[in-house]
Write a structure and sequence with these properties.
717 residues, Helix Hairpins, OB fold (Dihydrolipoamide Acetyltransferase, E2P), 5 domains, seven-stranded antiparallel β-sheet, five-stranded mixed β-sheet, 25 helices, 27 strands
């Protein structure tokens, strides 16, 4: 939900989120079933957490943020934990992490990042004594949390987290896992120096059971051979395996386990120390875990493993960041279901939830109409996306999508964003049905159905639409570098743009997810688009693609607009460097056909085309949209030295030796003259350079004065 959500809106959203999370958590924790991915569920929980932080008066005891897992299964004996097995709140960005640390420091009333040099345990390696690091970072394995109890060094009980207070006794199944010792080792000095630690008769440790990617593939191949349903992910196999009533089935799954916490106080002062103690007692610990002195080091650790997660043999979905000092950790206490002094810093989700704010229809190169979801901006796989193609109307009906729906979106193969599922339990009753338009949004022609495809009945529509977009970004118009014909076509096909105004709303994430694009190219394109939002008036008029209005006619029309603006009766001011698009629209709408025909180089056909364009409802909406997306028009700086060429119309043909054609045009305008492309009755002079073209012959036929370059230069002096 947006930050400016009203209190009543937040209350309704919170209730919907709680209901949806409880439903999916019950499926996940109690029934071992799943309708949405862990990442999508995480995003629902994160949204609920953020809203409750914004409106703490709506936090209730039954909120999913205030408790841990689900109820234990009936098949296993219930086990009560001596201390609660908590889980962690989630962070998805550096901003989230900074906010977490600030909340913790505000609660503790001092800065955790302040340098500290407490007495260090002797078991830490040389060079790691002082100062103590502030945080300890662990890879967050996608597995199942467990608790192990040892009495006199012997494993006597193993259990699941359950609801955090009561779990399930799965001792016999956990004994089948080679990574879990049945008997603790007797630690040797100097790892555990005499008198430094008190190894009590009863020791409780906690960790994670998981399955490797290789074993996951092997088990699923066996499932297929037996005609059984395959598992969705390694975590599901791990959870299902430790809950098998027959330990032999558990043993056949080749589960693995890391331990990461000692619940029993045996004299440990730091979390880092606990990992060293666990290893010395014979537990398997993760060799990739490491301390961090600052949030910057935490970010480096997290970013490294997001890029290199494929190099390790098991699935991870982020890192766990824990305040290293146990006294500070304990002082932080618990908030809801999680310790204040630890947090799960997740990798960017490949699947998450968001809201469909609108559905627009894009017309492709072939005239096919494609519905495109306009999404509340959301990060998926590290990219912020705002659009997702819905492919066709049949897909909308299949998923039962409505405008306003909360949906699960993903990046299939880390490439194209797509809507996977509608969370109907989140509906408020204000969602709207979507219907395909009956007329084409580009040219107003009738829409016809061709199988699952809806298409504009005008066979030339798609091609014309494509050409108008190419014209809009061309060198003489908005001159947007990097938006060549192929890229424009690609954006059309992917549903990213339905008209030229959409170009200015493109986000880097919309482009970066496309095949053969990347974050850098997306950044360059969006940067170029942003830089071109300011445009000269004559180029703006030319970019509109009005029939019969070329570059020179656009220049003449721009001068007409400037003349109207400078009239105090019309504009109320003498000078202006910028003009709003709606002002340009009003000026053209107030120009009659007769006034347009008085402009040099504009005859009846051209004037009618201009008049019709600025009175067309579709074009008016397009101009309003350009205004809304931030396009700014700059009026040309008039550098008139004199008016010696006022009201004289020039046509240039051939190559001039002393200057380029553009320079010649500029000099004519500086002296008050006008430029025309075609030779007509209103033409006063044809300037002929070397190798003049057909305009030269046309001037002869109409008996219009032809001057050479030398004569032209004399006129300019």
């Amino acid at each position: 939900m947006p930050i400016n959500t009203t209190k009543p809106q937040a209350k309704k959203r919170i209730e919907k989120l709680k209901k949806a999370i409880n439903y999916h958590r019950y499926l996940y924790h109690v029934l071992d079933k799943q309708e949405i991915t862990d990442e999508a569920l995480d995003s629902l929980k994160k949204e609920l957490f953020d809203l409750e932080q914004q409106y703490p008066e709506f936090i209730t005891q039954d909120s999913p943020t205030q408790r841990v897992g689900g109820k234990p299964l009936r098949e296993f004996k219930k086990v009560q934990h001596e201390t609660s097995m908590l889980s962690f709140n989630d962070a998805f960005s550096e901003e989230d992490m900074k906010a977490w640390l600030k909340r913790l420091e505000n609660y503790l009333h001092y800065s955790i990042l302040k340098p500290k040099t407490p007495a260090s345990p002797a078991c830490l390696p040389a060079g790691r004594q002082n100062p103590k690091p502030n945080f300890y970072c662990e890879l967050k394995i996608d597995g199942l949390a467990i608790e192990l109890i040892y009495e006199n060094g012997i494993l006597v009980q193993g259990s699941t987290r359950g609801d955090g207070l009561i779990g399930e006794d799965i001792t016999q199944n956990l004994k089948t896992i080679e990574a879990i010792p049945l008997k603790l080792l007797k630690p040797k000095t100097p790892a555990l120096p005499a008198g430094r630690y008190n190894l009590k008769p009863k020791i409780i440790v906690r960790g994670e059971v998981f399955i490797t990617k290789k074993e996951f593939e092997r088990i699923n191949k066996e499932q297929l051979k037996k005609g059984l349903k395959i598992f969705a992910n390694p975590r599901n196999i791990a959870a299902g395996s430790v809950r098998q009533l027959n330990p032999k089935i558990t043993a056949s799954r080749k589960l693995d386990s890391f331990q990461y916490d000692i619940v029993t106080d045996i004299g440990q002062n730091f979390h880092e120390e606990e990992h060293l103690l666990l290893k010395s007692l014979g537990f398997k610990t993760n060799p990739h875990n490491k301390p961090a002195n600052s949030l910057e080091e935490v970010f480096e650790f997290r970013n490294y493993w997001e890029k290199n997660r494929d190099k390790i043999p098991y699935e991870i979905d982020g890192i766990v960041v824990i305040v290293n000092d146990n006294k500070i950790f304990e002082a932080g206490g618990v908030i809801g279901k999680a310790p204040r002094a630890a947090i799960a810093y997740k990798f960017f989700p490949k699947e998450t939830e968001t809201v469909i704010e609108d559905i627009k229809v894009q017309v492709g190169r072939t005239g096919a109409l494609t519905p495109v979801a306009v999404l509340k901006p959301v990060q998926v796989g590290g990219i912020t996306i705002t659009h997702s193609t819905l492919h066709n109307y049949d897909e909308i009906k299949r998923l039962e999508i409505k405008i306003g729906d909360t949906v699960v979106v993903s990046r299939a193969g880390d490439v194209i964003p797509q809507v996977n599922k509608v969370l109907k339990e989140m509906r408020t009753g204000k969602e709207k049905e979507f219907k395909m338009p009956k007329v084409c949004p580009v040219d107003g022609s009738k829409v016809v159905q061709d199988g699952v495809i809806y298409r504009c009945s005008n066979p030339k529509c798609g091609a014309r639409h494509r050409e108008s977009l190419r014209h809009f970004v061309s060198r003489k118009a908005f001159s947007i570098e990097g938006l060549g014909p192929k890229i424009i076509d690609r954006f059309l096909d992917e549903g990213l743009i339905s008209d030229a105004a959409d170009i200015f709303e493109l986000k880097e994430g919309d482009i970066a997810v496309l095949e053969r694009f990347g974050e850098k190219s997306a950044e360059n394109i969006v940067g170029e688009i942003t830089a071109r939002k300011k445009i000269a008036l004559e180029r703006f008029i030319y970019a509109l693609g009005i029939l019969h209005v070329g570059e020179e006619t656009a220049q003449l029309l721009a001068q007409q607009v400037i003349a109207k603006i400078k009239n105090p009766c019309l504009a109320g001011r003498q000078e202006k460097s910028k003009i709003k698009i709606n002002e340009v629209l009003k000026i053209f709408q107030n120009l009659s056909l007769e006034e347009l025909q008085k402009i040099p180089d504009i005859g009846p056909k051209v004037s009618q085309s201009i008049y019709d364009w600025f009175h067309n409802k579709r074009n008016i909406k397009f101009l309003e949209k350009l205004e809304k997306v931030g396009v700014e028009i700059e009026t040309p700086k008039l550098k008139a030295k004199s008016q010696k060429l006022k009201a004289r119309v020039f046509v240039l043909t051939g190559v001039l030796a002393s200057m380029s054609r553009e320079e010649a045009k500029e000099k004519i305008r500086e002296l008050g003259g006008d430029i025309s492309e075609p030779v007509g009755k209103k033409t006063d002079y044809v300037v002929a350079g070397e190798n003049p073209g057909s305009k030269y012959e046309r001037a002869k036929q109409l008996n219009i004065k032809i001057i050479n370059e030398r004569e032209f230069l004399d006129m300019l002096e």
